[in-house]
Design goal:
18% of the residues lie in helices and 22% in strands. By secondary structure, the protein is α+β, with helices and mostly antiparallel strands.
Length: 1047
């Protein structure tokens, strides 16, 4: 599928935006006409037996719109004004009724447009009715969360699996369990214990739990028998065609209309507009497996016979008995359940297409209205039939990068990979690469300092936090140790356009001289004040939910979620008196607490490079003499065409944030602040950006990914059908780019040997947890990793996964939010290890191997012996039993892992700002950016052996930092020898870290302090249930707090 960016109306200044050859045209037939209704009460027609002739990892491109004859054999005409949707997951845009489907007149003006379904607010203490339709916002995986912002009443015992509809009288596929069918030998109950579900959940009335859009619990039985639960791991190709004879659910509006109709004519018309027109349902369809929403159609307003013809091609990694198509009516107060169509997984498991027109049943098991039907088709392609995942990264010219994303793969650039803010000379060993080269350990902040200093036209910076006082260079004398603020002011005085786009922390304010620093201490107001009377422009941008959302949702989004991207874009020398663009992307904000090097000192640098930069939010009050919190992070520099995509992201975010609203309309707009690159002759455009030759072994192919929605960027189309062509997903009044999640899933599925992850969080795939399935952390990443390992075990092939996370989330480890995060993290680990153990049992290897022979979690920590040259610090804490005093006495502390990166097979790397949790992957929560890259000359497919390019050097450099040395087995990380050696080093280091004796640590990699038994059960280590010195349960605890914050 072609990757898409901006249309011609976009703010992006280049006409030839991509300059990228389209993928080959696939012969993809148009959708068949809606199948005929199968007589009720047997809602499952015999599935079509035709096997797919060719398997696509992603849907082929839509057919062109200029047909000489109708493209679809429908009985009604089809408009071709926009491309046929091919990757639509869930739209909640309200469409007018179809011209071809007996529409009802549009709803009265006062109830259309901005008055859509209201969102419940959870963080503000507003209760929500549990309609649990959580919509994940993952690119090709889940639909966007309709209601990110309402409380989940986790104390209510919701069923862990939805009910299922009437099973056929006899099995349609009596032999559905080949040796690798991955099925559970468990029955799927055909009823739900009503005592386990709240009365609200059972009521098919208005319930608008917007937080739960990625979860869809069907509140009534859909099956009278038991169905087999099978694993769907692969892709689902789904069409939702149309519905017929839906009931009118908008009686509230009819009553209100009758009331207004009694008013004098003129007044009634002013209030209700066209109240003489009929008001009826605003239907949409939510698609779910195992209660996790995987797709969602857009909303069609006032139509009892809606026609969607909407296509979904989504990755799945779910155990389930049925695929549910839940038909709902979007309303001002939420959503009303109309009815359900359920397709047994057994029917689609063979790969045959199942299609038909089905009755939409309600709680009684009967049609919700006489003749109410839904026309759909479903086809499943298992992972082993998706050939694109079998060879790793393909280096040939036909490889077009990660499909289904907003930005395309850019060829011929260069990439520099960084670990930590600084690597001083000699701090890490030399690492030999191919062709006699050695890996160069980059100096991130020094390179950013130099790039800013050498800029002549523009310096654009985005950040969660940007602090003007931070010093980027600290080891080269006073001449280079100026602050970031001084450097940027100096450049702006030279005529360079300097723009800062910084998250506006709602808790930090400066109103009439009253100043608050903010809970997150981002220094946003402080930085704004510093640049106030300079030519540096600072735009503080809050995270907003958009005008069409409820006031409560707007407040909650603005309070809980953030702008989390971290980028620096500058012009640089391109030779011949011309300039090009270079972009830095990763996890490092330009603020306090981030400067560190691979030594990660605790005490020894407090009077030197960290003298004015002490950071340790674990401690409150007097911190004199306490250890700093060391900071480990990953970052990158992009030089080449992909840097222009990072620029496009900045421009579109700036234009959105600077658009005046309210009283600000009286002030000057920021729109003129952006330079029009195409009008500056010496700056090279994207089509002319310098590229390395394809034959250059050091060339890179780079792709930019994001998690972001149309409330944070300008240029996304308003029509969901147009958005589909740009690989955007539709949610409630927003369009969403969720390509970071798409990139992770693609890379994991393509992995052949090993995966190495460093991330600040690791939470996901809650739909497969043993409990608390309903919290909505439904990103696929943990489940995809577990299934990758399971598949390799079944194939009797080696595979290994190493995951490095913080010892605890930053802050007080005993706090409620931190404990909840640790609890979700533990649930994620437990699910993964149990999946691996089941695979070992399936092939009879449970005695030969244990789950930790394939998957291991680590954290980082340091311990420093007393140095005789250390100054004596006065005023240190006196109490001996407090965390600050204990940490000072035992001279140890965790190294905070703030990284957001993944290395696959030493051939592919992802680095960015996105954590592995729902906040970062959702697309409607925190805004994120990342880059994925590889060197085509250093892949398994090109070399047919272990790659030895820059990505290999990067991973080995990180391991040298964490383990204090390089060993021969590290060159084969998938090997059992390497897995057990790294695990052993981690255990040795943890024992040294947790011991009473203070000894200098050579390596920092610690085995994460939980015990995993042979059956994959995860529990606390006996005698080590809490974190040393600081306390807090290592496996977390279940405390009832707002879920949007912690997942």
């Amino acid at each position: 599928m072609a990757n898409h960016g901006h249309d011609s109306s976009s703010s992006y200044p280049y006409n030839n935006f991509y300059g990228y050859p389209p993928p080959p045209n696939y012969a993809y037939p148009p959708p068949p006409p809606p199948p005929q209704l199968h007589p009720y009460p047997y809602p499952y027609p015999p599935p079509h037996t035709s096997e797919p002739s060719e398997y696509y990892p992603y849907p082929p491109p839509p057919p062109p719109s200029n047909y000489g004859h109708p493209p679809y054999p429908y009985s009604h005409p089809v408009s071709h004004s926009s491309p046929l949707p091919t990757l639509q997951h869930h739209s909640s845009f309200h469409y007018p009724p179809s011209e071809t489907s007996s529409p009802s007149p549009a709803r009265a003006n006062s109830f259309s447009g901005s008055h859509h379904r209201e969102d419940s607010s959870g963080s503000l203490g507003i209760g929500s009715s549990p309609n649990h339709e959580l919509s994940p916002s993952y690119p090709p995986v889940y639909p966007h969360l309709d209601n990110l912002l309402s409380n989940m009443h986790l104390s209510e015992n919701y069923p862990s699996a939805p009910a299922s509809p009437p099973a056929p009288a006899r099995p349609l596929y009596p032999n559905l369990s080949p040796s690798n069918s991955f099925s559970y030998e468990a029955s799927y109950p055909g009823h739900v214990d009503s005592s386990a579900v709240s009365s609200d959940a059972l009521s098919p009335s208005i319930n608008g739990n917007e937080h739960s859009q990625s979860l869809q619990i069907v509140p009534f039985p859909t099956s009278k028998g038991s169905l087999k639960v099978l694993l769907l791991h692969g892709n689902l190709d789904i069409w939702v065609y149309e519905a017929k004879n839906l009931p009118n659910m908008d009686m509230f509006h009819k009553t209100l209309g009758d009331l207004f109709g009694k008013l004098p004519g003129n007044m009634s018309n002013k209030i209700e507009g066209h109240m003489n027109r009929k008001i009826t349902s605003d239907p949409y369809v939510s698609i779910s497996v195992s209660s996790a929403v995987i797709g969602r159609t857009y909303v069609i307003s006032n139509d009892e016979n809606p026609v969607w013809r909407q296509h979904f091609y989504v990755p799945v990694a779910h155990y389930g008995a049925e695929v549910h198509f839940v038909v709902k009516d979007s309303d001002i107060l939420g959503a009303q359940l109309i009815g359900v169509v359920a397709i047994p997984v057994e029917q689609i498991y063979s790969g045959a297409k199942v299609e038909g027109t089905y009755p939409i049943v309600n709680a009684s098991g009967k049609p919700c209205k006489a003749g109410a039907t839904l026309s759909i088709s479903v086809q499943y392609t298992p992972i082993d039939k998706l050939q694109t995942y079998h060879q790793g990264i393909e280096a040939g010219p036909d490889y077009h990068g990660v499909p289904g994303t907003y930005f395309p793969l850019r060829r011929g650039g260069t990439v520099t990979l960084y670990q930590d803010a600084h690597c001083f000379d000699g701090c890490l060993p030399n690492i030999k690469l191919d062709r006699g080269m050695y890996y160069v350990h980059g100096k991130c902040w020094r390179d950013i300092f130099d790039a800013i200093g050498q800029a002549r036209r523009l310096i654009y910076i985005t950040g969660w936090s940007v602090w003007h006082k931070v010093r980027l260079v600290r080891d080269c004398g006073q001449a280079l140790e100026c602050s970031l603020g001084e450097l940027l002011k100096s450049k702006s005085q030279e005529g360079v356009r300097v723009l800062l786009l910084v998250w506006d922390d709602p808790t930090s304010r400066n109103i009439w001289g009253y100043k608050t620093d903010g809970i997150m201490a981002t220094h946003d107001e402080e930085t704004r004040r510093f640049f106030k009377n300079s030519s540096v422009q600072v735009l503080l941008t809050p995270r907003i939910a958009g005008k069409r959302h409820s006031w409560l949702k707007q407040k909650e989004v603005g309070t809980i979620y953030t702008h989390h991207q971290k980028t620096v874009i500058v012009d640089s020398d391109a030779g011949d008196n011309r300039r090009k663009l270079v972009a830095f992307v990763g996890g490092l904000d330009l603020c306090d607490g981030r400067y560190d090097n691979p030594q990660h000192s605790l005490f020894r640098t407090l009077q030197s490079i960290h003298k004015d930069d002490y950071h340790n939010p674990t401690f409150a009050g007097n911190t004199a003499g306490c250890p700093r919190e060391p900071w480990h992070d990953l970052h990158s520099k992009i030089d080449g065409p992909a840097a222009y995509d990072v620029l496009a992201n900045f421009q579109d975010r700036w234009l959105k944030a600077s658009k005046p609203s309210g009283i600000k309309k009286l002030k000057m707009s920021y729109d003129d602040s952006l330079l029009r690159i195409e009008r500056i002759p010496d700056i090279i455009g994207i089509s002319d950006a310098p590229c390395l030759n394809e034959n250059d072994p050091e060339s890179w192919h780079v792709q930019v990914f994001r998690s972001i929605d149309s409330n944070s960027v300008k240029g996304f189309p308003k029509d969901p059908r147009e958005a589909t062509a740009k690989n955007l997903v539709c949610g409630k009044n927003v369009l969403i780019d969720m390509s970071i999640h798409t990139a992770y899933v693609q890379a994991i599925r393509a992995a052949q040997h090993f995966i190495y992850i460093e991330n600040q969080y690791f939470i996901g795939s809650s739909y497969n947890w043993s409990s608390h399935k309903e919290i909505g952390a439904n990103n696929l990443i943990p489940m995809e990793i577990a299934l990758k390992i399971a598949n390799k075990i079944r194939a009797h092939e080696r595979f290994a996964v190493y995951i490095v996370i913080p010892m605890w989330p930053e802050g007080n480890p005993t706090g409620a939010a931190t404990q909840r995060i640790l609890f979700w993290q533990n649930k994620t680990m437990q699910m993964m290890y149990e999946t691996i153990y089941k695979a070992l049992v399936e092939v009879g290897l449970e005695e030969a191997f244990v789950p930790q022979d394939y998957l291991n979690f680590f954290c980082l920590g340091n311990r420093e012996a007393v140095n005789g040259g250390e100054p004596i610090v006065s005023g240190s804490p006196n109490a001996t039993n407090t965390p600050p005093a204990q940490s000072r006495k035992n001279r140890r502390f965790m190294i905070y892992v703030h990284s957001k990166g993944m290395v696959v097979d030493d051939e592919y790397v992802i680095v960015g700002s996105a954590n592995i949790n729902q906040r970062s992957m959702e697309g409607t929560r925190d805004t994120e950016i990342a880059m994925g890259a590889y060197q085509p000359h250093h892949t398994w497919s090109r070399r047919l052996s272990n790659p030895r390019g820059q990505i290999y050097g990067y991973r080995m450099s990180l391991w040298a930092e964490h383990m204090g040395a390089i060993e021969d087995c590290f060159t084969h990380p998938e090997s059992l020898e390497c897995v057990r050696r790294v695990k052993s080093l981690g255990e040795i280091n943890w024992n040294q870290y947790s011991a009473d004796e203070v000894r200098e640590m050579r390596g920092h990699l610690l085995k994460y302090p939980v015990e995993v038994d042979r059956k994959g059960k995860v529990r606390s280590i006996p005698g080590c249930e809490t974190f040393p010195d600081v306390g807090g349960n290592i496996v977390g605890s279940f405390l009832a707090i707002q879920e949007n914050l912690t997942i």
